[in-house]
Design goal:
This protein starts with a helix and ends in a 6-residue tail after the last helix. It contains 28 helices and 22 strands. Helix content is 44%, strand content 16%. It is of the alpha/beta class and 756 residues long. The strands form 3 sheets. Strands 7-14-13-9-10-11-12-8 form an 8-stranded mixed sheet. The chain has an 8-stranded parallel β-barrel with strand order 15-16-17-18-19-20-21-22, surrounded by 4 helices. Strands 3-2-1-6-5-4 form a 6-stranded antiparallel sheet, with helices on both faces. It has 4 domains: 3-174, 2-Layer Sandwich (Beta-Lactamase); 178-201 and 324-423, Phosphohistidine domain (Glucose Oxidase, domain 1, 3-Layer(bba) Sandwich); 213-318, Orthogonal Bundle (Enzyme I, Chain A, domain 2), CATH 1.10.274; 436-750, TIM Barrel (Alpha-Beta Barrel), CATH 3.20.20.
């Protein structure tokens, strides 16, 4: 008899038992009889977890008086070892095993052979199903697989009959129910508290036994085909990382997706009478058991990839494709995910989303930029979250310190909330500065502008009292869209943004996509396999090549700004001719609209972003053609240091307050003196108080920063005397051997100026 046939024989009889009106205990009593008969086993017993102990619930062959009397701890005896390790035991001589424990009340002294399988619910062992024989023998693989399939059915019965409580059904140890700390990389600073919600909820299997085997098989075939299409389509996306890592993961995924052995095992499980969902889970349980035996970290990681793929297949076959966003957030939430795209994050209710924890993620990921704009703290590079965080767990996220506390003790939660309250008080104090103009102590007006990228971001303009939008990232519309945004859609967005800004300026940066900001509908041509995507075929380079893309955006901006002033900024300009070519596209569209007698912008101001260090060497040639210049400190820093900020080892290695960067920025400012060109900084650097202080000291008078930073920077400006900080910065930069961050912090402390 095959494994499938043996399991089917058992399942056919179990179906009748499950459908009967017997109470749960009666069903268990019948189950052990059926298994014993089908496997010709003298003993069949079921142990279930109750009050932290494994209790004998039903038996055929052992003393009936031992039922609900014999109890053992997790890890105690053979049965306890199976539950603890969530693994199968198959022994010809049970007494020879080091974990064997004799229980005289059971009458099991005459039995020699022993086989046991864990009863698994939600990836945790909640019981054990075991068989015994008088004669010493190892059980056939057929018998073991039949037992494993039966254990799946039992898990459904146990869950439906509530034979174990919810905590025990989840198999939670003291370690898993008590406080835990998860560490990671700070991606977006901030504090947040709420309850854990997984972005991709685990698929709950509601039906284990199949009514039509062939129909289940066809469901699996269709799911496999769809999953393989998805995996093949991932090649042009950066969902799993970039560069070599991305390729490696994809190849592993493809290997598993097309593995005949995997699909064959699922088919065999269906043959035994399981539904498609139960069959996938049954095979995956077997894989998890194997994973626990793997010492090789690389191989273990590959097994995790298979787990990920199994979950994907489960979601497809069950039709449960939606994320937690589609179900809606019912309370304050900390979102847990492997990774997120910007569009996925935007689907969540901002009022209830209090933080995000990612297993992956990098400082330059698109989702981080969006989260920063939403003022949502993000912790990335946090490993093995499923094993630590349960759905609904209370989470205190301290992204400032780079950790989260799971299931905190009351006193810890109270201390956190006190800290949080102080943080909110500070925010309220900053909010009170909304209508206060940022003048320094010496009477100099500093422009404090905000960065944005979405229509919804514009509400922050009135809330913060920023002087305008110093950087509107037009690529966000491209990144969150499934298809290329049509010209009419772009025009509508830009017009809405200008309407929301009123008489305040908005600097629109032309689209910065390609390279590390790939979009699935727009292949990056020769740059699609960039080894260094941040320095690859992106931004203005790509836009000038794809003239239609830039023409459409130029027309949209010109039409949206009809009757108003328009500020346009070109990203990643490396040489003056690139600026000239980009401006020529706008001039051409302007001439077209003029010929059509369309209403035009009152005035157009063209500017450039200085992100590529090479541009600083020809700035004297470019300045006469510019209305303004913005320094993009994020990209500039990584180019100056040849350091990819997405690499966690390099993310915090190079300091913004390094003399190298500060001297470079000072030289750019000095080059622009007398040109009449407004020079400012846009990027994260200007939103940090100590860094902003240094920028003021080397001559910068316009900062464009995240909305959350506007209040703190305004407050800082009002405490600064520019002559003092300029003199101090000149002195420090003349001696690059000094620790500039330390010196600046000491200087600020002496004057009662708070910093990060």
């Amino acid at each position: 008899m095959t494994a499938a046939a043996a399991a089917r024989q058992i399942l056919t009889r179990l179906t009748e038992v499950m459908a009967s009106r017997l109470h749960a205990q009666g069903k268990l009593d019948q189950v052990v009889e059926i298994i014993g008969e089908c496997l010709s086993s003298e003993v069949c017993s079921i142990y279930l977890l109750r009050e932290g102990m494994l209790e004998l619930f039903a038996t055929r062959g052992l003393n009936q008086s031992a039922v609900h009397v014999t109890r053992m701890a997790i890890g105690e005896g053979l049965t306890g070892a199976i539950a603890q390790k969530v693994e199968t035991l198959n022994l010809a001589e049970a007494k020879a095993h080091p974990d064997f424990q004799y229980r005289p009340e059971t009458g099991e002294e005459k039995f020699h052979s022993f086989a046991g399988v864990p009863i698994v619910y939600r990836e945790r062992a909640v019981g054990v199903l075991c068989v015994q024989h008088v004669e010493p023998r190892r059980y056939e693989e057929v018998e073991i697989e039949a037992l494993q399939t039966t254990a799946m059915v039992l898990s459904e019965l146990i869950a439906n009959a509530e034979l174990v409580d919810e905590e025990e059904a989840r198999g939670l140890t003291a370690e898993q129910t008590g406080p835990q700390t998860v560490s990671g990389l700070t991606l977006v600073k901030g504090l947040g508290s709420g309850f854990a919600v997984y972005h991709q909820p685990r698929v709950e299997i509601t039906q284990v036994m199949a009514e039509d085997t062939e129909a289940e098989r066809q469901r699996v075939y269709r799911a496999f085909a769809r999953m393989r299409e998805q995996i093949d389509g991932l090649a042009g996306q950066a969902e799993f990382g970039v560069g070599g890592e991305h390729e490696e993961v994809l190849e592993t995924y493809k290997m598993f997706a097309y593995d005949e052995g995997w699909s064959r095992r699922i088919n065999e499980a269906i043959d035994s009478g399981l539904t498609a969902e139960a069959a996938i889970e049954r095979v995956q349980q077997h894989t998890r058991m194997r994973m626990r035996e793997i010492d090789d970290p690389l191989l273990a990681e590959r097994m995790h990839d298979l787990e990920d793929l199994s979950n994907r297949l489960l979601r497809i076959v069950s039709g449960q494709l939606g994320t937690a966003a589609s179900q809606g957030l019912r309370r304050d939430t900390i979102l847990i995910a492997r990774n997120l795209g910007p569009a996925e994050l935007l689907e969540y209710d901002r009022r209830r989303l209090k933080g995000v924890i990612l297993e992956e993620g990098s400082l330059t990921a698109h989702v981080v930029i969006v989260a920063r704009a939403m003022n949502v703290p993000v912790l990335g590079r946090a490993k093995s979250l499923r094993g630590v965080i349960r759905e609904g767990d209370e989470v205190l996220l301290d992204a400032n310190a780079g950790h989260a506390i799971i299931r905190p003790l009351p006193q810890v939660a109270e201390a956190f909330q006190t800290r949080f309250a102080k943080s909110r008080e500070k925010q309220a104090a900053y909010a009170s500065l909304r209508d206060v103009e940022p003048f320094t102590r010496c009477g100099t007006r500093i422009q404090v502008m905000m960065n944005a990228g979405l229509r919804d971001d514009m509400s922050a303009l009135a809330m913060t009292g920023a002087d305008g939008v110093g950087l509107f990232r037009t690529e966000f519309q491209f990144l969150v869209s499934a298809t290329l945004p049509q010209r009419e859609r772009q025009t509508r967005l830009y017009r809405d943004v200008l309407d929301a800004a009123g008489d305040k300026p908005v600097i629109f940066r032309t689209v910065d996509i390609g390279g590390d900001k790939s979009v699935p509908y727009l292949a990056a041509g020769s740059g699609e396999h960039d080894e260094n995507p941040a320095m690859g075929w992106r931004a203005l380079r790509l836009a000038l090549e794809r003239e239609g893309l830039m023409k459409a955006q130029a027309r949209s901006l010109l039409e949206a700004a009809a009757g108003r002033s328009l500020y346009v900024m070109f990203p990643m300009v490396s040489e003056p001719w690139e600026f000239d070519d980009a401006k020529a596209v706008f001039d051409e569209q302007l001439a077209f609209l003029r010929a059509k007698k369309r209403l035009l912008p009152e005035r157009i101001h063209f500017g450039a972003m200085l992100e590529v260090p090479a541009l600083a060497e020809v700035l004297d040639h470019l300045l006469p053609r510019l209305s303004f210049l913005s320094i993009g400190t994020n990209d500039l820093t990584q180019f100056l240091f040849a350091a990819d900020r997405a690499n966690p080892k390099l993310a915090e290695r190079y300091d913004w307050l390094s003399p190298s960067i500060m001297r470079f920025l000072k030289r750019v400012m000095q080059t622009s003196i007398g040109s009449g060109v407004d020079v400012g900084v846009c990027g994260e650097m200007g939103g940090r108080r100590l860094e902003a202080l240094a920028l003021l000291g080397i001559g910068y008078r316009r900062l464009s920063i995240t909305p959350a930073a506007v209040g703190p920077i305004k407050e800082l400006i009002r405490k600064v005397d520019l002559d003092e900080i300029t003199t101090a910065m000149n002195g420090w930069l003349s001696d690059p051997g000094l620790n500039l961050r330390y010196e600046l912090a000491l200087w600020a402390d002496e004057r009662g100026i708070e910093y990060d």
